[in-house]
Amino acid sequence: MNEPSPRFWKIFFEVYEHLPRQGPGNRDCAARALRLCVGLPRTPMILDLGCGVGGQTLQLAELTTGSIMAIDSHAPSIERLKATLVVRDLSQRVQAQVGDMVHLELPPESFDLIWSEGALYNIGIGKALRICHGLLLPGGYLAFTDAVWRKENPPPEVKASFDLDYPAMATATDVVTAIQQGGLDFLGRFTLPDEAWWDDFYSPMEQRIKELRGKYDDDAEALAILDQIAREPEMHRRYSEYYAYEFFVARRPVSRKADNMKSSNRK
What string of DSSP letters covers 23-37? Predict the structure, then answer.
């Protein structure tokens, strides 16, 4: 299958970078996931992986009193977040930087909470869980969202779309198994409600696409790319019963002995 053209990615980011967030989620879901992190320190050290322009980062700053390091590989998104942090007077608490999840160069066992909404799949859930395990303090929490299948045999249009972006997508049960095999204690999960897809993601996306259609009204290639991007929210309208976003919360065992026992059991 052909890779998207450089023109596609230019227009893709022209859409996505102007959205409040780059994937499903909302403040209520973030608060619910945080409630599963029982005993989190009063001022936790938090790592937000794949932060995008920082929609969920800002929510974390509202919901916690800790320090946050927000990392994304797309430099323009980080620059946009930095500007927002200045406007909101959050630069002392929240540090935004460009980084690669596979090569973070962060000290091990340095975070009380690792947060990632819709980003860990980019490097594979198994690899991501191993990286997070190493960065968490013993007893630290991992909270992340991931796309999962809800039904077998999805329509060809749906299957083709996820095969393009996330061919390894599994069920929620499979993700829980991966969490446990990754040496983490699974604490709970819940399905994101439909408004978490629309309020800050798909509705603003459709509005942004409408604006860009006006900008590119005499550019057939750009309009075709916008049509391609617009298929995502339309597919969700038609087929959302086949897939979902799930919030997962896990914890690194408190003792090294527990870590070693889990590691031994995986061999």
Answer: SS--HHHHHHHHHTS
| Residue 109 zone, left/alpha/beta (φ > 0; ψ -120 to 50; rest) | left
Query: Which CATH class for the 6-262 domain?
Result: alpha beta
Which of 200, 199, 208, 197 has its CA nearest to residue 233? 197
Beta bridge partners of 115: 48, 143
Could you tell me if 129 and 61 are in contact, meaning their C-beta atoms sit under 8 angstroms apart?
Answer: no
Q: Which tokens sit at 82? A: 């930095």
By 3-state DSSP, what share of the chain in percent is helix, strand and coil, each rounded to 5? 50, 20, 30
Predicted TM-score of the model (pTM): 0.92
pLDDT (tens digit per residue) in 86-109: 999 999 999 999 999 999 989 999
Distance between CA atoms of 26 and 160, rounded to whole angstroms?
27
